Task: inverse folding
C-alpha cells in the first residue's frame, strides 16, 4: 500500500488537514521570500519541511503507517517553531511576513500537538498500523 492509499483510508478530515499542513509547510514559506528580512525564515522552513516530508515517506516505506511517523516533525519542527517565534518578535520584521509566520507557526504547533501524542503512544506500546482505521 502506498502512502497516498493509506491516507485515503483515513477519515476525510485527515486529508483536509494534510492540505492545510502543506499550505503552512510549503506554500506560505515561499511568500516569505518576497521580503528581505524574512527570506532566511522561508529557507529554513522549507528545508525543515522538505526533510520532514522525505523522512516521513521513507519511514512509511520501512515501518508502514504507524504513529512513529510524527518523529521527523518533532525533531525538525520543534526547533523551527522556536525559531519562528523569535523571528516574529524581530523589530525589523515587516507586518505581513509576521502575519504569515503566525499562520505557519500555528499550523506547525497544531501538527506538533498531534505528533507528540502519536509518538508518545507509539513509545508506550501502541505500535499497530492505523491505515485500516476509518
Result:
Amino acid at each position: 500500500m502506498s502512502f497516498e492509499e493509506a491516507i485515503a483510508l483515513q477519515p476525510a478530515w485527515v486529508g483536509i488537514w494534510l492540505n492545510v499542513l502543506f499550505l503552512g509547510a510549503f506554500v506560505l514559506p515561499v511568500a516569505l521570500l518576497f521580503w528581505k528580512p524574512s527570506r532566511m525564515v522561508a529557507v529554513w522552513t522549507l528545508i525543515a519541511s522538505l526533510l520532514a516530508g522525505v523522512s516521513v515517506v521513507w519511514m512509511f516505506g520501512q515501518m508502514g503507517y504507524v504513529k512513529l511517523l510524527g518523529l521527523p516533525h518533532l525533531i525538525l519542527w520543534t526547533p523551527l517553531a522556536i525559531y519562528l517565534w523569535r523571528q516574529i518578535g524581530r523589530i525589523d520584521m515587516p507586518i505581513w511576513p509576521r502575519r504569515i509566520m503566525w499562520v505557519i507557526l500555528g499550523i506547525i504547533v497544531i501538527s506538533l500537538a498531534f505528533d507528540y501524542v502519536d509518538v508518545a503512544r507509539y513509545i508506550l506500546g501502541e505500535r499497530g498500523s492505523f491505515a485500516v482505521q476509518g
